[in-house]
Amino acid sequence: MIQLDQVSFAYPSQGPTVRDLSFHIRKGEFVALLGANGAGKTTTVRLIDGLIRPTSGRVLIGGADTAGSSVSQRARRVGFLFQNPDRQICKNTVREEILFGLNAVRAEEGPEKLAARTDRVLADFGFTGDEEPFSLSRGQRQRVALASILAAEPEVLILDEPTTGLDYQECCHIMDRIRRMNREQQVTVIMVCHDMEVVLDYVDRALVMAGGRLLADGPVRQIFRDAALMERASILPPQMIDLSLRLDLPGADSPETMADAILAAKGGKPA
After folding, report:
1. How far is residue 160 CA from its own chain's centroid?
2. How many CB atoms lie within 10 A of CB 15?
3. Phi, psi of 100 (to 5 degrees)
4. pLDDT digits (tens, 9 = 90+) for 18-50
5. Is the pTM of this model over 0.90?
6. Residue 107 has what pLDDT?
7. Residues near 167 by Cβ (< 8 Å), separated by ≥ 6?
8. For residue 118, which of 101, 136, 134 has the smallest C-alpha distance?
9. Which residues contact 103 (CB under 8 A, 6 or more apart)?
10. Cα separation of 218 and 221, whole Å?
11. In 3-state terms, what secondary structure has residue 203?
């Protein structure tokens, strides 16, 4: 679905932000970009979305080079959820917000089909459509922004710190909805995230970056258990992984598996 081939990018009057990035992401994968601030994660997802163009190298979506496509063409295939929903919402009601995006990329379907599509999305997200977005909580506004993107049924969804500022319940609502869409509809998801607990709970594969370069690419649990890599990338692993490493209990990455591993180590039987 996504291919970066020796991609580099430099902002004007600055040095390179990303350097010689090459990786593939298959359809239906759920991938996290990990690294400290300044590692090049947000620049990378903006390159994938086509918001910026590579200084060198190629970015392909579904085999098509983004350099040869317009913003509207890319918007039909790739949805981008900003870290701050207030930079994405521009209408006075939730219904108008969803229709705004649909009219931008699905206008050929006609008013009746777009209205029906909007009704389905409103029901799925639990909105009536008459709510004023800026009177809603931060978590609800994030859901409005996500609903407006998913209404257009993108093939790829990019998330830039989607859980920032959310409480635990709001975070679960957002991430559960994204995971369901990923599994049931095979939408490819790429997430920039500093919350390693969220990454452990929801993501399958991680790309680790530092200094604009790709350091590692692999299954999330394998990545988190590489202490040297975590130190090099300035990442703290999730607490459960860290505890299992300190206790030398490989494979214990949840409260249940941790309890079983401790019992087994003491000669007891797993629950």
Report:
1. 6
2. 8
3. -60, -50
4. 999 999 999 999 999 999 988 999 999 989 988
5. no
6. 86
7. 139
8. 101
9. 114
10. 9
11. coil
pLDDT of the residue at 246: 85
Q: What is the CATH number of domain 2-237?
A: 3.40.50.300
H helices of the chain, in order, are: 41-49, 71-77, 94-105, 111-125, 138-150, 168-185, 196-202, 220-224, 227-232, 239-246, 255-265
> Which two three-digit tokens encode residue 229?
């890599």
Strand partners, 30: 189
- CATH 3.40.50.300 segments of the chain: 2-237
Evaluated on CA atoms 16, 18, 22, 27, the torsion sign reads negative
First-to-last alpha carbon distance for the chain, in angstroms, is 41
Identify the residue whose tokens are 């206790």.
247
Q: Which of 13, 11, 59 is nearest to 38 (CA)?
A: 11
Q: How confident is the model at residue 235 (pLDDT cuts 50, 70, 90)?
A: very high
Query: Does residue 21 contact residue 214 with C-beta atoms inside 8 Å?
Result: yes
Nearest to 159 by CA among 216, 58, 84, 83: 83
Task: Encode burial over 93-104: b for 16+ CB neighbours within 10 A, e otherwise.
Answer: bbbebbbebbee
Which residue type does 164 have?
T
One-letter identity of residue 97: E
Q: Are strands 56-61 and 30-34 parallel, antiparallel or unpaired?
A: unpaired
Residue type, 107: A
pLDDT for 45: 92
**8: its two tokens:** 């580099």
Using one digit for the tens of pLDDT, what is the confidence trace for 53-109? 899 999 999 888 888 777 777 777 899 988 888 988 999 999 999 999 899 888 888
Which one-letter amino acid corresponds to residue 118? T
Q: Is the dihedral of CA 237, 242, 248, 253 positive or negative?
A: negative
